[in-house]
Write a structure and sequence with these properties.
- By secondary structure, this protein is of the alpha/beta class.
- The model has no long low-confidence stretch (mean pLDDT 92).
- The protein is built from 6 helices and 13 strands.
- The protein has a single domain, classed as Rossmann fold (3-Layer(aba) Sandwich).
- Helices cover 32% and strands 32% of the residues.
- Helix 1 packs antiparallel against helix 2.
- The N and C termini lie far apart (39 Å).
- Strands 1, 4, 5, 6, 7, 8, 9, 10 and 11 form a 9-stranded mixed sheet that branches. A two-stranded antiparallel ribbon has the order 2-3. Strands 12-13 form a two-stranded antiparallel sheet.
- The radius of gyration is 18 Å and the shape is globular.
- Its EC number is 2.4.2.9.
- Belongs to the UPRTase family.
- One of its GO terms (biological process) is uracil salvage.
């Protein structure tokens, strides 16, 4: 069964509440998103398996540890998810990167795929799907469904902010996926934005507003 983890680390909470401020500019916002993603990756990789390896220090030989088992991949949901990738790669630089692009149909309000490019062996990897905002949960749920259709079996979802509505939908649609959220906010407003939130993460990351 998937588990829901709401981060309680003081550095994560401090950085999230700092970037909520409307006066924080694009450069600082982007850097903070990267730092938060790095801290969240540290927590989300806590249960990765280790294997013994023989190494030699400047003083002697010893049995050390290295990552074992499946290799890793990071799959951002375009476009805002791109802001989290570099922070995660600083923690796991050997990970491969895929991309999933979705847009919301203005009539049906349902997510529609417009781009999907994944590592060829993605089905054999532990995949971290990332998107800063888990609002309604529609796009995130669709992205996880797409990955499952392509044979991916081991996924973890990371977001900076989550709304209760999105968290409920993702947990219901994908009960096998662990979810890590930097903070759980109050609700969605009538326009589907997280409240109190931090505005449009994509616009603030890329300076398009």
């Amino acid at each position: 069964m998937g588990r829901v983890h709401i981060m309680d680390h003081p550095l994560v909470r401090h950085k999230i509440d700092y970037i909520r401020r409307k006066e924080v500019g694009t450069k600082e916002f982007r850097e903070m998103i990267e730092e938060i993603a790095m801290l969240m990756c540290y927590e989300a990789t806590r249960e990765l398996k280790l294997a013994d390896v023989e190494i030699e220090t400047p003083l002697c030989k010893m049995t050390g540890k290295e990552l074992a088992g499946r290799k890793l991949a990071v799959v951002p949901i375009l476009r805002a998810g791109l802001g989290m990738v570099e922070g995660i790669l600083k923690m796991i630089p050997a990970a491969k990167i895929g991309h999933i692009g979705l847009y919301r149909d203005p009539d049906t309000l349902m997510p529609v795929e417009y781009y999907c490019k994944l590592p060829s062996d993605c089905d054999k990897r532990e995949v971290f799907v990332v998107d800063p905002m888990l609002a309604t949960g529609g796009s995130s749920s669709e992205a996880l469904a797409m990955l499952k259709q392509k044979g991916v079996k081991n996924m973890t979802f990371l977001c900076i902010l989550a709304a209760p509505e999105g968290l409920e939908k993702l947990s219901k649609d994908h009960p096998d996926v662990d979810i890590y959220a930097g903070a759980l906010d109050e609700k969605l407003n009538e326009h589907g934005y997280i409240v109190p939130g931090l505005g449009d993460a994509g616009d603030r990351i890329f300076g398009t507003k």
